[in-house]
Amino acid sequence: MEWLKIDDFESESPLMSWTKVDAENHTMPNIDSPQVTEVRYEPQLDNHYLLKKPAPEGIVGNRKAISFTKLPEPITVGEVYTFYLRLNVEAFPNNHLLVIQGRRKRRMVMADLNTTICT
Mind listing the pLDDT tens digit of every residue in the chain (119 residues)? Predict the structure, then answer.
C-alpha cells in the first residue's frame, strides 16, 4: 500500500497550501488573525513540524483557530488509507481534533470548528 503525504513542512513555503481562519476572534486587545501557525524545525531530530497556538503569548479570546489543507487526492468511500501528519499543539486551551472530511473551503470556514483539518 502506498502512503499519501499530506505535508512534511519541508518545502520552501511550507504553509502556502494551508488556510488559516480565526472563526471566533474575541481577542483582548483585538488582533486581526491572531493565531500562531508556523513550521518549527528540531535540528537534533532533523524534524519539521506544524506548531499551532490560538494567539501569541499573553493574548486570550481566540477560541476557534482553524487550519486546513486539501488532501492530495480524493478519498473513495470504503477505501482504506493511512495518513501521517507531524503536528505540535503548544498551550492550546481548547479541544483539538484531526478531521478528514469533504467540505469545500467556504463551507469549512462556515463550519466554525476547533480543529486542524485535512479536507
Answer: 677 788 889 998 999 988 888 888 899 889 999 988 889 999 999 989 888 888 888 888 887 888 888 888 888 888 887 777 666 666 555 555 566 666 676 666 666 565 555 55
Q: In the sheet that 97-100 helps form, which strands lie side by side, from edge to edge? A: 19-22, 65-69, 115-118, 97-100
Q: Please check whether residue 8 is in contact with residue 50, taking contact to mean a CB–CB distance below 8 angstroms.
A: no
**Which cell numbers in the block locate residue 66?**
482553524
Residues in the chain: 119
Give the Cα separation of 119 and 104 in Å (integer). Answer: 8
Q: Which residue reads 488573525 in cell numbers?
A: 33
Q: How far apart are CA 36 and CA 58, in angstroms?
A: 12
What's the predicted TM-score (pTM) here? 0.73
State the cell numbers at 108.
Answer: 469549512
